From TrEMBL:
Pfam families hit by this protein: EamA
Localization per Swiss-Prot or TrEMBL: Cell membrane
Species of the source: Neiella holothuriorum
PANTHER family: ACYL-MALONYL CONDENSING ENZYME-RELATED, SOLUTE CARRIER FAMILY 35 MEMBER G2-RELATED
Gene that encodes it: rarD
Membrane topology: Multi-pass membrane protein
Family annotation (InterPro entries): EamA_dom (IPR000620), EmrE-like (IPR037185), RarD (IPR004626)
EamA domain span: 8-141
Record's protein name: EamA family transporter RarD
Length: 294
């Protein structure tokens, strides 16, 4: 690996590690309703990203975007998807469903491949078809034999996959794009905080510790994203993909070893098929990356 690749690998490990241990932060704020947590995440991410745009990135991309209504429309859809993804994830963590969240992010790369085939006319290799088939079998067994639909995992995987697909349609840097997305859902977040939040909760009614922790939601949201952007600039996607299993693996460890979530038989079977699918998926990616370019 050259210097740029090594830096990219470090940034990738940092990004996925932060995403993987993020449940610890949300567990500490378990008394805060999921919707309120998402609202604070939007508000403080908006503020932090505005500061980054002012001090480092600049507002040129935002100015250009305002003259392109089609791009704004795509970002409106992506903002709704990422907001939904945040809400489901926080709810899952705070309701002792972290294993389901972990499963969702294991499934996500396989859903990405499927969406690439359907919407981007990407051709799938034989091993990719095998990976998709294994993942489908695992989910189907849970639904048919155990009568339980892994809706949290599927919702997280599908919402984040479609979010990534929509973001591919908009040429804009990560910081500017995320700021626009948070700006689009900021009115909803503020409306909830000041009008709909249970017991009319506002920031001043929390303890100082909770206030500081809620403000930190902006950093929790943007820090791994910025590391991911830095990694993506320095690593080919074929290499970056191998780091994406760090996050759900850390979630799995946290759920089973630290938060006493039980690995029931239906989850164990589904995880087994998903892990097998990911092994096939990763082997295909590794083999493809080693083939000489024509």
């Amino acid at each position: 690996m050259n210097s740029s690749n090594r830096q990219g690998a470090i940034f990738a490990v940092l990004a996925y590690t932060m995403w993987g241990i993020a449940p610890i932060y949300f567990k500490l704020l378990q008394q805060i309703p999921a919707m309120e947590m998402v609202a604070h995440r939007v508000v403080w991410s908006f503020v932090l990203l505005a500061g980054l745009l002012t001090l480092r990135v600049g507002w040129q991309a935002i100015s250009s975007l305002l003259r392109e209504p089609q791009k704004l429309a795509w970002l409106t859809l992506s903002s709704a998807l990422i907001g939904l993804n945040w809400l489901i994830f926080i709810w899952a963590v705070n309701n002792n469903r972290m294993l389901d969240a972990s499963l969702g992010y294991y499934i996500n790369p396989i859903v990405n491949v499927a969406l690439g085939m359907v919407f981007l006319q990407e051709r799938l290799a034989r091993l990719q078809w095998v990976a998709i088939a294994l993942a489908t079998v695992g989910v189907t067994i849970q639904i048919v034999n155990f009568g339980s639909v892994p809706w949290i995992a599927l919702a997280l995987a599908v919402s984040f996959a479609f979010y990534g697909l929509l973001r591919k349609r908009v040429r804009i840097d990560g910081v500017s794009g995320l700021w626009v997305e948070t700006a689009l859902i900021l009115p909803v977040a503020l409306w909830y905080l000041f009008a709909i939040s249970p017991d009319n909760i506002i920031m001043s009614e929390h303890s100082l510790t909770i206030q500081v922790s809620l403000i930190a939601a902006g950093l929790i949201t943007t820090a791994p994203l910025l590391c991911f952007i830095a990694a993506a600039k320095r690593l080919p996607l074929s290499q970056l993909g191998f780091f994406q299993y760090i996050g759900p693996s850390l979630m799995f460890i946290l759920a089973t070893l630290f938060y006493d979530e039980a690995v029931t038989s239906d989850k164990l079977i589904t995880f087994g098929f998903i892990w097998a699918a990911l092994a096939v998926f990763s082997w295909h990616g590794l083999r493809s990356s080693r083939q000489p370019q024509q």
